[in-house]
Amino acid sequence: MKFQTLQMFSFLLVSFVIAFDTGRLTAVSADEVSAEQLLQPDNLVAWCIVPFDASKRTPKQRAEMVQRLGLRRVAYDWRQEHIAEFEEEIIQYKEHQLEFFAFWSWHDSIEPLIRRHKIHPQIWSMLPNPKAEDQKDKVYEAAEAMVPLVRKTSLLGCRLGLYNHGGWAGEPANMVAVCEYLQRHHDAAHLGIVYNFHHGHEHIDRFEDHLNAMLPHLICLNINGMASADVVRGGRNKILTPGQGEHEADMLRVVLKSGYSGPIGILDHRSDRDSEEVLKENLAGLEEIRELLSE
Fold first, then answer.
1. Integer angstrom CA distances of residue 237 from 91, 202, 219, 231
2. Helix, strand, or coil here: 154?
3. Can you give the pLDDT at residue 89?
4. Greatest distance between any 2 Cα atoms in the chain
5. Would you call 103 helix, strand, or coil by DSSP?
6. What CATH number is associated with residue 289?
7. Does residue 282 form part of some domain?
8. 34: which DSSP letter?
9. What is the pLDDT of residues 115-126, one digit of tens each?
10. Most buried residue, 102, 165, 232, 269, by CB count within 10 Å?
11. For the CA atoms of the chain, what is the radius of gyration?
12. Number of domains present in the structure of the chain
């Protein structure tokens, strides 16, 4: 009984801290945000730089690379061969003054490391695509499947981000509906949405509407050069350097207008390329977009 009481107290305390710590978690401003503010290096997050790095860097080499580029945050993606390196990655980020900003999906071995090293990464996880036919039942099915991870991340003091990756589960309206269900029925104040340009080409035409719907829940926005949906459906140009696409500058203009001031992810996601070179190209492309949006 004492253990259950203590566990409930811990849950309530973590929920309170997450809700109260507006300085760390607030991503929406009442006013339009400047391109300089949104795209500054301290606000950028390096993403898809572990299994996609052709140079196969060690944790130390990766930390040195990120620091060399002037970035401060890394969202950590991984494969089976990287599990043994989880702790070393955390240690190297600390030694190089980097933030272990997010962790992809879930693996049980990360839980004791989060506690031991007192880090609080966002946990990025895809929703399951539900089998139900009715929309209300789909939302219920997808949301209830996330409850164990909702509870686990809350107790760890970590934000949980629903990550769009195509299908029903990647549609902004469905992600918002699941967020609202879990916040209403499972006290998931720490739950939000991680939206990826590169998995949202079909949303380009209505991007402003989708963004406005997600905005109260948005905890990270990962950007990409955006070709048309028809090009992507043909198997080309899904991953482009910012500045090389047709739509990303206009989409970022919408983001600035919305008042979103939270983290912006830039990605490698090209297994045949060296991650440092790809990130350099991202930074150069962002500089061009920043100048364009500042005019």
1. 36, 14, 26, 7
2. helix
3. 98
4. 63
5. strand
6. 3.20.20.150
7. yes
8. P
9. 999 999 999 999
10. 102
11. 19
12. 1
